[in-house]
Structure formats: structure tokens, C-alpha cells
Design brief:
Blueprint lengths: L3 E5 H11 L12 H17 L3 E5 L7 H5 L12 H16 L4 E2 L6 H11 L4 E4 L13 E5 L4 E3 L1 H8 L6 H8 L14 H11 L2 H6 L8 H7 L4 H8 L21 H11 L2 H7 L3 H8 L3 E4 L3 H13 L2 E8 L9 E9 L2 E6 L13 H12 L5 E4 L2 H9 L8 E4 H8 L8 H9 L6 H5 L13 H26 L3 H24 L5 H26 L8 H11 L17 H8 L3 H20 L16 E3 L9 E3 L11 H8 L7 E8 L2 H10 L2 H8 L4 H9 L9 H15 L4 H8 L3 H14 L1 H17 L1 E3 L5 E3 L8 H38 L4 E6 L2 E7 L3 H13 L10 E6 L2 H4 L1
Parallel strand pairs: 1-2, 1-4, 2-3, 4-5, 7-10, 8-11, 11-12
Antiparallel strand pairs: 5-6, 8-9, 9-10, 13-14, 15-19, 15-20, 16-17, 18-19
Helix pairs in contact: 1-2, 2-4, 4-12, 7-8, 7-11, 12-13, 15-16, 17-22, 18-21, 18-22, 19-21, 22-35, 23-26, 25-26, 28-29, 28-34, 28-35, 30-31, 31-32, 32-33, 33-34, 34-35, 35-36
Length: 890
């Protein structure tokens, strides 16, 4: 008998919205949650082929639980506008698919599901991510979470919760539910509840024997006994809901094809539209069975090599022992030449009972000519990593023309994740095998060479296959925008090769100097602790927000500047900064925090990051993280080392040049203000930069109506805050706080600024209008920067998006500028000065190592190439410095 499928639509709606990357249609409407829910429904239909299926949603009205308990779900935040706007189209789409949709007033989706499940004469599968549903499980009813492919029968419930399904209501009564604001017993967590129910079987029996429970928890239990009856009613799923007669037929109907086409077109779901329209190419790809081959013999390898030789485009992926490029060893390689078929070559899986594998060096020798052939076009996901891995084996990968991570990033940089698993779900509707699925999690995670070959083959071959399919899906979308394609081919893809070289070369660090500074910082931190204790008259933990709250606001009675979301006095940095103006302790705390972070993040950690093979530190540059296009750096992060403090500069002194070399630093001067002059075409700004004036003094002269040579240092300081503040959309309130003036004075400065620089005001207003109309803004390169909240109903979010709209083209253009400069400099260095190296990028600054006798020549060419990377209406200026270490050079 085919099962009845009950889908918890409300549960999946929230989960899809928060778990999946954002997706928008052509009109700028969010559609990601719709896509995620419908994709899961399609998968359920495909997996179970049901005849009866219904999707159940919560109604908007209050339910009987709200009448029982006024605080029910009171702590939940209001539904985001971007989610609420997706409910109606989702309902319409489900109905058009011929799937019954149920929503009954006065009860929750859980209650309707419970009623239908208990009344059914069919086996029932409830598709949900809600743990409360475990109380419904019996021999006839099981749960499945389609988002993570997990299923639970009676045994599964016991394995997950430590209690049986008929104990779940008592279990939930004890632990409560923070998401629904059901209190439970403070201090009683899942383990304690499961232990008690194992011993006493029921809640009634626990209540009867509560005096026998040892420790402080007994008091908490006794105190909350009167609440149990209410809590139990709140967590119990009602299984006797009256289902209207017209909603009792749960049979699947024929889809309304014409309505579906209209809905899918409006939502922008092109692949589903192609499926519905009978596109043969789509059907061939979507419904072809997967064929994944494990290459264990020379004959298998010969067959793969023949396939690669006959194909002009293929995906390649490496499986390794480590994410650190210098230490990583190849465990296997995977290839895909057409969708749904891929190969995995295991070469060094090493575990008891592992089958014989081809020799790694022999395999790489046979593949070398193909991998280095520029006419064989390759696709990878995060190609930069694979480029470096192959270099470990003296293979210079060529023909690497596409990177699906960068394709996704250029298509929509504001999507929170561009990893393969997220993109597979977003664009292909496929749940992939994750690394954790085959290698485990946390402390128990094994390296890939310990993974069984059969599991490894499916995982690795799927990676190559998904990469190939992502390219086939993403590239046609990119091709609809010529400027985006240009940015991909001329900026992002060439930059991946440049960054791979920089990561591989690494940076030389003076570990002795850092150890000395760590000792100094340790002593200073101890002094600050003693000073803080003396100030208060008692010892306390300076790093504990809770203790800090008690000391600052309870003991010392300092004013509460801000509160946390839970209503506690905040001890955030901006709060301490404000308090430090009037009170000594916050100033001590701030210095302690700053030095503590420097010590733990840099002076202690950087020496541990030195690679024993190269004696250098090798950071990893992230191309697909910052929405504006800027690069970031991880493991370790070399872009956040402070420069304005003496301690920060000392850390930079530890970045040293090798013997007979110098460090050269080249930094764009006031690049975002120059870009503002170019984009706004404001005459006064253009004139100031063309004349080479100090822009902050020039602005002060305009705002304060003072001759340029009479501008004071305080006027210049305030003008600098205005110049940079307005780029970031700063309000009068924010400016007043920064330069310590009244709000009306700050507003007067802003009004005067816009009167003197009307072009800037026009640029800002026009940019906001463009963003509202199109849903995005653009950098000079044509890179699109999407703004999900630009038309949000919530005005705070909309205003935030407007500020981002003003700033994003500046930051995006600045990011593209330095990327273009890096690509041009890399080419020049290879050709003209191969013994000099670009070693770091930090926002608007590039750092090089160069032989002492060539540093003057390098300075000249670096300045020239950077200043001419792009053509602007105002001159670009690059400041170049040279020294034995980074601090000296900057």
C-alpha cells in the first residue's frame, strides 16, 4: 500500500528561508523559500510516488494554545517581510501542482498533521523538521526530514531522544521549548529528561517520586510542578481536529499546466519551466541515471583518458589529505565529461583492507599532458585550490577557464554561501553527499585517505558531476549579461591564478620578535587586570560579559547605554567607548580587550602558522565572500592587523624581507573619494583632485567657508569624518557622535556639504532610485551588487539597503581596481622581474618582496601600473614605501 505523505509546510518554509542562499526573480522579489519548499515536495513525490499527499500550513489566526497561555510564542520575532511575501506564491504553486493544501483556523499545522496521521488507514510518512512530531510516531507513522535526508521510526526516535515516542510529550514538558516560549524546568536538559523517563517511565511517576531526585535540581522541579499541566497541554499535538468535508480528499490531482507556466515564469524558475514544457535536453539531464565509475585498473584509466581526449570540456576535482595547500597530498582525482556520469581515481586510500589502487605518480604522469593542455577546457569549483594541489606534483594546470564558485559569486555576490552543496540545492535542486557524510564530524573526523573507496568514489565523482552541471546551469545565466561575463573572464578568473601564486609563495615572519611581543603583551595584560581589580576593589574576570555587567552596572552604577536582545545591559565595544569618555574602568577594559585580541590572534598564533617546509606563513585569499567584491584572508587573517596603534605596528614589524631583499608597500591614496568624484562628476570634487589638493582640507574650506590656507586641524578632522561618513551613508546622528557635536550642528555640516558638492547629492539620489527600480547597483567593471532589502516593507532594512546602494559601487569599484592592478602586476613581474614577488593584498595596499638592487625599479613600475589600472576622471595616486619589514615600508 502506498503511503500517505503529510508535509509540514510551515516548518519547511522557515527552514528553507534560513538555510538556503537568497534567490530573486527578475522583479527583485525573494523566491528562495518557495524554491526550497517546492523542491522538497518534488523530491518526496519522486521518492515515494504517492497517490495521496497534502501540504499543511499554520493559519494566521491565534490558536487554542494562545488562549491557554498568553505568552505562547511571545519571544518569536515577527516573520521577515521577505518570507511573508513568498507565502502566497508558494500556496498558488502547490495548488497548481495538483497537491491538496490544508490550512485550518484555530489550530496549528502540527494538529492537522496529527489528526490526519492518526485517522489514516494507509502507512503515513510525515515530512517535517519539527521534533514535536516524534510524539506521533508508531508502527504506522514515521518521520522524514527532507532537508537532511534523515528518517525516524520508533527505534529512530529512541536513538535520537533517548525516550520512546509515547514518552515524547512528557519529555517536551520537562525540557520546554524556547522557540515556542514553553518554560519547562530550568536546568533540565535533554539528557536529564531522558534519564528520568528511563527510570520513572512517565511524568506522573516523576512527579510522584520527585522528592527522591537528588541535588539542587529537585528544588527547581518542585517549584515548577504547578506548571506541568499547562506545559503538557501546550506540547501535546491535538489529534481530533475537525477536517472540513471539502478538504477530506487527499488524492493528488492533475496539475494545472497553464497556471504552472505562468507562475514559474513569474518566479523565474527556468529549469522547472523547461521540465514542464517538455524540453528534451532538460529531461535527458534530469532523469538520466547517475553512472559513477571507480578507476582501479590501467584498463579503466585508459578508458577515462580516451574519454578526456575526445572531450573539449570537462570538470576536474582533487581529493586530498589537507586543506593547507603546501601540506596536502592527492588521495584521488575525479573527472566529468557529461552530466550524470563521472569517474574517480583513488590513488592513496590507506586503511586496513583497502583494495589495490593505481600508483599516484604513474596516474599523474599519464594525465599531465591533458591537464597542461590549454585547449582542453576545464571546470572546477574553487579552482585556486586545485591549481596549487597540482603544482605540488609539478603539474601546471592550463585551460582552467571556468570556476563554478566564481560563476555563482558574480551572478549574485550577496548570496550567503557559494559552496558546492548550497549551490547544488539552490540551482539543481539536489541534496549532495557532504564531506561530513563520508568523513565524520568534529574530533572523530577522519582524513580522506581513510574513507572507504566505495563511499569516496560516490562522493568524489558526485563533486565532479555537480561541478559540471552547475556550470551548465550558471554559465547561460551569466551570458545574459555581457558586463558580468567580461568581469568573470578579465578579473575574477585571472585573479584566481594570481592569488594561487601569492598563497603558494607565502610571507616571511620573524617568530622571535612575535614571541617577545607576546611576553610584553602578557605582562601588560596582567598590569591592566590588577589596575581594574584595584579600581573596583575586588578581583573579577575582565573577559566575562556577565561579570562585567555586574561590576559596571550593579556595583559601580554606571549608566546603561544599550541593552542586549535579552534585555541585559550591553558591554559591547561601542558602549565601552562611550563610557570610557567619563569613567576610568571602561577605558582599562577596552585596552585589555584590544591587547588580548592582538595576543591571541597574532603574536601567539602567527608563529604556529609558520609552515615547517617553507618557513613561511601561507594565508588563503577568499574571492567569493564579501558581497562588494573585496578579498578577504583566512588561516590566518592578515587583513585586520591594526596600523593605528603602536602594538599593531609592532606586529607588522614581524613581516620581514629575506636576506638581500626589501619589502615594498604600495597603497592607493583616498581611492573611494576619488571614485566618488568620478561617479558623481561633481565639479568641486573633480577640481580638488585635479589640482592635487588635500581633499579633507578642501572640503573643510568649502564647509566652513574658510580660505584653504586658514583651515585648522580640527576643521580638517571634521571634514575627513564627513567625507568618509557620507560614503557609508552616515546620518546626522552618527556624525554628531563621531565628531562630538550636537545633532543639529552635524546636520548643518551635511547640508552645507551637499550645497557645496551638489553632484554628490545627485549621485546618491540617482543611485537609490536605480537600486529601487532594478534591485541592484553596479561597480565600474559592470559587476552587479544585488540589494535584497531595497524594497523591503521594514523601513529600517530598506534604509540600510539604500546606504549599501550608495557605498557598494564605490567599494565594488575599489575592489575591481586593485584586482586589475594585481593581474597586470603579476604579468609584469613574470616577464620583467621574476625574482620579485607580490606577497600580500590588504584592502587598497599591495606588498612585495624584491631584491635590494631592484627595489627602485620595482617602485617605479608598481606605481605606474597601479595608477593606470583603470581610467578615471581624476588621477589615481599610489604611495610607495620600502623597508626591511612591512611597518617600515608602509
Amino acid at each position: 500500500m502506498k503511503p500517505l505523505i503529510l508535509v509540514d509546510g510551515s516548518s519547511y518554509l522557515y527552514r528553507a528561508f534560513h538555510a538556503l542562499p537568497p534567490l530573486m526573480n527578475a522583479q527583485g522579489q525573494q523566491t528562495g523559500a518557495v524554491y526550497g519548499v517546492v523542491n522538497m515536495i518534488k523530491k518526496l513525490r519522486q521518492d515515494y510516488q504517492p497517490e495521496k499527499m497534502v501540504v499543511i500550513f499554520d493559519s494566521k489566526e491565534k490558536t487554542f494554545r494562545d488562549e491557554l497561555y498568553s505568552e505562547y510564542k511571545a519571544t518569536r520575532e515577527a516573520m521577515p517581510d521577505d518570507l511573508r511575501s513568498q507565502i502566497a506564491p508558494l500556496h498558488e504553486l502547490i495548488k497548481a501542482m495538483g497537491i491538496p493544501l490544508l490550512l485550518i483556523h484555530g489550530v496549528e499545522a502540527d494538529d492537522v498533521i496529527g489528526t490526519l496521521a492518526k485517522q489514516s488507514h494507509h502507512p503515513v510518512i510525515i515530512s517535517t523538521g519539527d521534533k514535536d512530531m516524534a510524539q506521533l510516531v508508531n508502527k504506522n507513522i514515521s518521520l522524514i526530514n527532507t532537508m537532511n535526508n534523515s528518517a525516524m521510526d520508533e527505534q529512530g526516535v529512541f536513538e535520537k531522544f533517548g525516550v520512546h515516542p509515547d514518552q515524547i510529550i512528557d519529555y517536551l514538558t520537562l525540557i520546554g521549548d524556547t522557540s515556542d516560549n514553553i518554560p519547562g524546568v530550568p536546568g533540565v536538559g535533554p539528557k536529564t529528561a531522558a534519564k528520568w523517563l528511563s527510570q520513572y517511565k512517565t511524568l506522573d511517576n516523576i512527579i510522584k517520586h520527585h522528592k527522591d531526585i537528588p541535588g539542587k535540581i529537585q528544588g527547581a522541579l518542585e517549584k515548577h510542578l504547578p506548571e506541568f499541566e499547562l506545559c503538557k497541554k501546550l506540547v501535546t499535538i491535538k489529534c481530533n481536529v475537525e477536517i472540513p468535508k471539502e478538504d477530506q480528499d487527499l488524492s493528488l490531482k492533475s496539475p494545472d499546466t497553464e497556471k504552472l507556466k505562468l507562475l514559474l515564469t513569474d518566479l523565474g524558475f527556468k529549469s522547472w519551466l523547461a521540465e514542464l514544457s517538455g524540453d528534451e535536453t532538460y529531461h535527458r539531464k534530469a532523469h538520466s541515471p547517475k553512472k559513477y565509475h571507480c578507476v582501479l585498473t590501467q584498463a579503466d584509466l585508459d578508458k577515462l583518458i580516451a574519454d578526456l581526449n575526445q572531450s573539449d570540456l570537462w570538470a576536474v576535482d582533487t581529493e586530498t589529505t589537507s586543506l593547507h595547500i603546501i601540506d596536502a597530498k592527492i588521495v584521488g582525482l575525479s573527472f566529468c565529461t557529461k552530466a550524470n556520469e563521472a569517474y574517480y581515481i583513488p590513488v592513496s586510500h590507506n586503511y586496513p583492507g583497502a583494495p589495490d589502487q593505481l600508483n599516484r605518480e604513474d596516474v599523474l604522469a599519464q594525465l599531465k599532458s591533458l591537464l597542461e593542455n590549454p585547449n582542453k577546457i576545464k571546470i572546477a569549483h574553487n579552482a585556486k585550490y586545485d591549481l596549487n594541489i597540482f603544482l605540488n606534483y609539478n603539474i601546471h594546470l592550463q585551460g582552467m577557464k571556468y570556476d563554478t564558485m566564481l560563476e555563482s559569486y558574480l551572478l549574485d555576490s550577496t548570496a550567503t554561501r557559494h559552496d558546492m552543496d548550497s549551490l547544488a540545492m539552490k540551482y539543481l535542486g539536489k541534496k549532495t553527499i557532504t564531506f561530513e557524510d563520508v568523513a565524520g564530524k568534529g574530533a572523530k573526523q577522519i582524513t580522506f585517505d581513510q574513507v572507504g573507496i566505495e563511499e569516496a568514489s560516490n562522493y568524489a565523482a558526485e563533486d565532479a558531476d555537480i561541478t559540471f552541471q552547475l556550470h551548465e546551469t550558471l554559465w547561460p545565466r551569466l551570458e545574459q549579461h555581457a558586463e558580468t561575463v567580461k568581469a568573470f573572464h578579465e578579473i575574477e578568473m585571472p585573479l584566481a591564478f594570481v592569488l594561487a601564486e601569492m598563497e603558494r609563495h607565502g610571507v616571511l615572519i620573524d617568530s622571535d620578535l612575535l614571541h617577545k611581543q607576546s611576553d610584553f603583551l602578557g605582562k601588560r595584560l596582567h598590569e591592566l587586570e590588577l589596575q581594574a581589580h584595584k579600581e573596583v576593589g575586588q578581583p573579577f574576570n575582565l573577559a566575562s560579559p556577565k561579570q562585567l555587567q555586574e561590576i559596571l552596572f550593579d556595583k559601580l552604577g554606571l549608566p546603561v547605554v544599550e541593552k542586549t536582545p535579552s534585555g541585559q545591559p550591553s558591554t559591547a565595544e561601542n558602549v565601552l567607548q562611550e563610557l570610557a569618555l567619563s569613567y576610568p574602568l571602561p577605558k582599562i577594559i577596552m585596552e585589555h580587550r584590544t591587547l588580548s585580541k592582538l595576543k591571541s590572534t597574532y603574536t601567539d598564533k602567527l608563529p604556529l602558522e609558520i609552515n615547517p617546509k617553507t618557513h613561511r606563513v601561507h594565508t588563503s585569499y577568499q574571492q567569493a565572500v564579501a558581497s562588494t567584491g573585496r578579498l578577504s584572508s583566512t588561516n590566518p587573517n592578515l587583513q585586520n592587523i591594526p596600523i593605528r596603534t603602536e602594538e599593531g605596528r609592532k606586529i607588522r614589524q614581524a613581516f620581514i624581507a629575506p636576506k638581500n631583499y626589501k619589502i615594498l608597500s604600495a597603497d592607493y591614496s583616498q581611492v573611494e573619494l576619488r571614485l566618488m568624484a568620478h561617479l558623481s562628476q561633481d565639479k568641486s570634487l573633480l577640481t580638488a583632485f585635479e589640482k592635487g589638493l588635500d581633499i579633507h582640507s578642501a572640503t573643510a574650506s568649502e564647509i566652513f567657508d574658510t580660505p584653504l590656507d586658514k583651515v585648522t586641524s580640527d576643521q580638517r578632522r571634521r571634514s575627513k569624518a564627513i567625507n568618509f561618513g557620507l560614503i557609508y551613508g552616515m546620518s546626522a546622528f552618527g556624525l554628531a557622535k563621531q565628531i562630538d557635536v550636537e545633532r543639529d550642528v552635524a546636520q548643518k555640516y551635511i547640508d552645507t556639504y551637499f550645497a557645496r558638492y551638489p553632484g554628490v547629492k545627485d549621485y546618491m539620489e540617482n543611485t537609490k532610485k536605480f537600486a529601487h527600480h532594478h534591485g541592484y547597483v553596479q561597480a565600474i567593471s559592470g559587476r552587479k551588487l544585488h540589494l535584497a532589502d531595497i524594497n523591503a516593507r521594514n523601513m529600517m532594512r530598506q534604509k540600510g539597503a539604500e546606504r549599501a546602494a550608495i557605498n557598494a559601487p564605490l567599494q565594488g569599484s575599489s575592489a575591481d581596481l586593485i584586482k586589475i592592478a594585481m593581474i597586470n602586476l603579476s604579468a609584469w613581474l613574470k616577464k620583467e622581474m621574476p625574482d620579485a614577488y607580490m606577497i600580500m593584498q590588504v584592502h587598497d595596499e599591495l606588498i612585495f618582496e624584491a631584491p635590494e638592487n631592484k627595489v627602485d625599479l620595482l617602485s617605479k613600475h608598481v606605481k605606474d601600473i597601479m595608477e593606470n589600472a583603470i581610467s578615471l576622471s581624476v588621477p589615481l595616486v599610489v604611495d610607495v614605501g620600502v623597508g626591511n619589514n612591512w611597518d617600515e615600508a608602509h
